[in-house]
Write a structure and sequence with these properties.
Structural class: alpha+beta
Strand content: 15-25%
Strand order of the largest sheet: 1-2-3
CATH superfamily: Nucleoid-associated protein YbaB-like domain
Distance between the termini: 34 Å
CATH architecture: 2-Layer Sandwich
Number of domains: 1
Length: 107
């Protein structure tokens, strides 16, 4: 005898996936990636929750006569770190969703 569609089972599976995704999101906050610019003159540390958790500047990059260069390097490093954090998040969430992109918005 063939089983029919069971909406309760579907809801249970959706709830489990939502719980797994919440756990992964919390775990991602503990993981940190580095973004850098200027050959490592500026390094930004970003967690898997896309929060900047630290910035490191080499002494030589701080030039009071060229603040705009430092601002540009920081911007590039932050964007690099955020991109890497996003990639990490997508990779880890993909393990939960089985690569079904876009499901994160459903939960």
């Amino acid at each position: 005898m063939a089983r029919g569609f069971d909406p309760n089972e579907l809801m249970n599976q959706a709830r489990k996936m939502k719980d797994q995704m919440a756990r992964v999101q919390e775990q991602l906050k503990e993981r940190v990636v580095e973004g850098s610019a200027g050959g490592g003159m500026v390094t930004v540390f970003v967690n898997g929750g896309s929060e900047v958790v630290g910035i490191k500047l080499k002494k030589d990059v701080v030039d009071p006569d060229d603040v705009s260069m430092l601002e540009d390097l920081i911007q590039v490093a932050v964007n690099d770190g955020l991109r890497k954090a996003q990639e990490l998040s997508e990779q880890e969430m993909g393990k939960v969703t089985g690569g079904l992109g876009g499901l994160g918005g459903l939960f």
